Amino acid sequence: MSSSESEPSGRLHGLDALRGTALLLGVVLHASMTWFPVPIWIVSDTDNSPVASAIFFAIHLFRMTTFFLIAGLFAHMMLERRGTFGFIKDRVIRIAGPLATFWFPVLAAIIAGLIWMAAIRNGGSIPTDGPPPPPLTLETFPLTHLWFLWVLLILYVSMLVLRAPFALADRDDGWGRFVDRITGALIGPWSPALMAAPLALAFWFAPNWTPFFGIPTPDTGLVPNAVALTAFGSAFGLGFLLDRRRDLLGRIERLWPVFTVVALGVGTAALVMVGGPVPELAPVSDPELKAPLAAVMALAVFASTFAVLSLALRFASGYSAVRRYLADASYWVYIVHLPLVMVGQILVVNATWPWFVKFGVVTGGTMTISLLTYELLIRHSFVGGWLNGRRIPWGRPRDVEFSPAE
């Protein structure tokens, strides 16, 4: 019996760890942007490397589709355990609440970083002749890196609306059994290709799609772009259905060699096709180029998603106190990390150290500060109970565990 099949009703340690890893990799992703060989970030270092952009590309391929797939699975788990009203109450408290609370302080800190960097470039004084900020509209609303909370709320509402008529009419679960059979047919070596098909079409129809960045981040505007909704919505939906068929996680786990080889091959091909680690960051308009790029990039996204999913199920399904701690801390770390990353990048931008040393200092410093504040201020306080659904008392025995739906 596979490790993922051995705990049909218990905590899915591998998926919990992978969800936390997806959030923590955001620190690495955003830190790498300063050392791109092509300037893309407000803090741009003259000492750069294509390795930094390759790191960004690899992480960006799978990180958020993986996160939303696991979010969908955990959403179904919580809905089954708490019911509709319990689910709504929990999501309002733990998703909508942090978004409303932390959005403005985070935005203010990011703006302060922008002003600081502009002053450095202006010889130490704040420039006064810059362009005015864009008007605040539905299309320009700056969600910052907290956009994932907004998209989660959209997906939760969509899921509840789509599920409601079936939940009311399907008293004998006949429709549910039919959906379960469809879910079973989706899972196999062909899964990345099936999931990639809608995303490839979305890439194709996107008017200003830049292939290197894959799924455009919906960090601006309250209506997410169609590509992001397609990618994250389909991943969330598959995760939701997989919780009904928990046995299929064992099938995914057993396919880890296939998914891993395909992900490495297609991911490498995608990187080459977008121009390598020193790409031209411009939208593609030539249909003869856009069609194969859209197909390969979409396949790379979901091949890498299934690869990390299967690897987590295969090699991280057992309990680990370290992985559990980092998974719990990841929510807080992600919320606060971007201003800290910006401060670190600005502090080292003029240092003469090699780029990889500065990259390590920024990443390590951000993680250290974030984890220290989590341990000292968050984990054992009411804020920890708010964000994680539970407050961990000081000195709690390590073998006491909580449900992932809590």
Q: Outline of this structure?
A:
The chain is an all-alpha fold.
Annotation keywords:
406 residues, 12 helices, disordered N terminus, globular, mainly alpha, single chain, disordered C terminus
Notes on the protein architecture:
The protein has helices at 13-32, 50-121, 147-169, 174-186, 191-205, 226-244, 248-254, 256-273, 287-315, 321-348, 355-378, 382-388. The chain is mainly α and 406 residues long. Residues 1-9 and 397-406 have low confidence and may be disordered. The chain starts with 12 loop residues before the first helix and ends in an 18-residue tail after the last helix. Helix 1 (13-32) packs parallel to helix 10, helix 2 packs across helix 3 (147-169) and helix 2 (50-121) crosses helix 9. It is globular and about 70 Å long. It contains twelve helices and no strands. Helices cover 68% and strands 0% of the residues.
